[in-house]
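$ fold --in a.seq
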Amino acid sequence: MKQQYRQIPAAVLAVLTALSLTACGSGGADSKESTANDAAQSESTPKTPQVAQPENFDTYVSNTVVSTGNNAVIRNAEHVTYRAWIPVEEAGKLDYCFYFSNTIDSTWDDGSENYAGMSGGSYTIERASIADAGTEFDANVTPENSTPVTFDGAASKEVSPDETFWSDPVSFDVPEGHYLLWEWTLNGTEIPAIRMSNMTYAYADKGDDKGYLYTNEIPLPVLFGADRDVKTRIVTLGDSVTQGCQTTDFACQFWAAQTLEQLGAEDYSLWNVGLGYARATDCALDGDWLERAVAGADLITVAFGTNDIISGPYGGSGHATAEEIENAVRTITKRCTDAGVKTILWNSPPFDLAEELDAVRTDYNAQVESIAADCGAAYFDAATLLADPQDAAKTVYGQHPNDAGGTVLADALVEEIQTLLGSAT
């Protein structure tokens, strides 16, 4: 799953780095009061989850550690072509199938841009394809072996608000060390997207003769699924710490990627559904985000807290209380364990919070082990692993764990996973 990376110009890298510092959420410890009004809050009332063909998740498992999901929205796309360079977990010829959701999974900032449960708009997929993008990044690469991705046998598809759907299966060969290039052209409004935050290369061509330009916000499938024979499907569910924000750009050194690297993609798949700025209260709405995570998991990690503490639930009046976070996390954890999914519940790591906010984190963390026990989950003490030994409220590896912090987390988590699965060596 290792890739080779081409150096990009320093000026471009500086821009991308600046974007990554703000794109993951929780960029600082200052509080932000929600400005969402009651009408907007009512629109986010959870809908009955409609997971399309849940049995497909048994066949098509994630084939990339790069996070997927919807924490952004494209207000208007007029025949825009998007490209994403996707590092694959298992190379070679596989049958692929891609899953899509036209609903926003999680709230961004105060919810004025988008919020959990927000419906996507009506849009058209004019065409979609996958291709071999080679071993190095080139924004304007001419794809090799470009292969159409179709929908019910058609090259295009009209997508309705809140629709969930799968592509048709397509067989494709990604050589070892090569990227899978996802490319599609969309036309419409209010299209759910992900803030990629330099997890991988993402570009868009708006048809204005400027060619492909970097975009942090890109609509993508929420599962890059492949028919792979694995023993355990791992899903990592959480916020920007799970997504991998502020690790080395494009290098897949966040803890989820390192965890799969250690476990081995031959026996495991890892589906990263961590989203920057996400809250437990978003996930506890039990929309498609949580439903598909449960459907696609034999083992799941649940890691929330920071954004609940700083921003509070969408439509609320500010910071969540420890009890509010506990209630949301109990809902998520019980949903996972009730479905028979082996669940590892994290406590909330330090984030250099103001004293009054760290008190909320401390109060919540005091309950996490009992939440795990009550729900039949395993408990993972991420906070101790990441905290300054001299001051438990302070970070050692940065507010979003850097590459070294990712290694510390992965080392401990692999041991926990092997113990939980009865495969410790």
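$ fold --in b.seq
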Amino acid sequence: MVEGAPLAISLGDPAGVGPELIAAAWAARDSQELLPFVVTGGPDVLREAAARRGLNVPVRQVFHPNEAADCFAFALPVLDGADGEYTPGEPSRAGAELALASLHEATGLAQAGEVSGIVTAPVSKARLAEVGFEHPGQTEFVAYACGYAPGDAVMMLAGPNLRAVPITVHIALSEVPHQLTSALIERKARITAMALARDFGIERPRIAIAGLNPHAGEEGRMGDEEARIIAPAIELLRAEGLDVSGPFPPDAMFTARARATYDVALCMYHDQALIPLKALDFDQGVNVTLGLPIIRTSPDHGTAFGIAGTGQADPGAMIAAICMAGDCAMRRAGLFDD
């Protein structure tokens, strides 16, 4: 990573809220103290999205990320390259191709060390599939691009009030008991602990692990996964010196009092992690990928085609994703004073 390199932001689906939120984040750059960033493509899309939102956002096309710092104070830097039409609320194949090209470019720049990290704006997985995207989501794509197996990249949702990691992610709920293993819990807990220390400055993170069943199984009356799978993983992780506790009844571990006792919650399936995060921190929630050689964050919301171009979308999660990526990059560079 080049010292002082900017962040890269991928455009996301141009028919969604991504472009207008990127423009809104740049407009708030001073008040939010954002590090310089460059957008990978879509200069015309960004101009029109900003204008539709009523924002004065001059767009400056640049040819290399290192030009971003020179103009960031007075213009939104956008790398010369792919572009398209701004059609809010009307996704198209051309828009999906632009989103994918932008994602490829941002990831490649991070791998080459030309940017300090990437922030990925929301995409439509269904639309991307139509243009050859074969991954469950952007998390898996970035992991694959880095040469990592999907299981070695951990998705963490983070906001001001909660950090949560789903152990199983994009699978049917009926498949969770079959996919859940002690080894999977152990691997994701280790990756999470290492990443929280390296990228978030938490030297010895406290990890709370949720049960799978109501009341954490209630001593086997409502399922045996806690005793058979989860508790052995916790015992092994403790033996390795990690600060791990649980399994806790999922319906009680997200209260304010409970959250004060841990730094991250490891949850057994997707909604067990995302429902409390979105209930507590929807407008500031960030999806961050742990365990990779590059930094990647994303606002924890979707394309919101239904409100794209209306000015209703809140830029809080995009700004939070940019701030988090910048903080992580500074810690990796040894520039962040915790």
